[in-house]
Amino acid sequence: MTAPIAPRILEQAATWLAQLHSGDASDADRAACARWREQDPDHARAWARAEALMNQLGGLPPALALPLLDRPASRPRRQALAGAALLVLPPAGWLGWRMSVPAHRTGSGERRELLLADGSRVTLGSASAIDVRFDPAQRLVLLREGEILVHTALDNGAVQRPFRVASAHGRMQALGTRFSVRAHQGRTSVAVLDGAVRIEPAHGAALTLRAGQQTAFSASAAAAPADTVDAAAWTRGMLLADKMALAELLAELARYRGGVLRCDPQLAALPVSGAFPVGGPAEVERALAMLAATYPLQVQSRLGGWWTTLVPAKK
């Protein structure tokens, strides 16, 4: 069994994390925190626990999140920490909470930004879900579904842990960068905005992408890099298509609304280009109207718009 961490050390870790996330932390503060963590193995353990809790809560302010650090069961109480009144839970409450918390998730048409414990930022797109797992060896984001934009920060520890994103098809290691990742049914797509990303398919050769490049990879191989065009447009409510098959475009639009959105098989391979609004059902309706005005197709809606099909336009 791992020895318990003294409450005073947990409180010190909480205070350090609150200070570093206050918005006023200096380089001297970060260096002092690093020295504190190196002074004692229990300091490092307490810091790792505080980081893990912050990441599970998706950037909840430290003054509210850190009281969930486990304390002796005989001492549940409210106490001041870093100037805030905090609820203190016993170990059983902490373990039960960890078991019940789901992945960070967004609904249809929703976007959400998370501030991670190391200062990195992750923006979740529509209908997306991630887990965050920081440990002494790495900083890991598990992409369960959907799309994310990652802006990494330098690790605030003495040892620079690698920042990785894992999907069903492999993993990606950030090399000081900003990049987007999208999980598809049979592949993962990656686009690099700044820096570089090393892609490691689960059973294939590794590949490094530079800024301005994108690719898609399966578990066995990655496609050759190609130029990317504004890979973060979805964070501003736009979906860019460059000769994208209509069926694929509709699959993307469907993530921003409920119901069924499909096309006649005759139109599935129709190449479509343009900038289409996304963000919710109303924007998707506008995008469909743009398609109908530009291409030889029409929109058929049934069941109050719940079932929508794009069919060839009548001649």
Automatic annotation (TrEMBL):
Transmembrane segments: none annotated. InterPro entries: FecR, FecR_N, Ferrdict_sens_TM. It comes from the Bacteria. Residues 11-53 form the FecR N-terminal domain. Residues 104-198 form the FecR protein domain. This is DUF4880 domain-containing protein. It comes from Massilia mucilaginosa. The lineage of its organism: Bacteria, Pseudomonadati, Pseudomonadota, Betaproteobacteria, Burkholderiales.
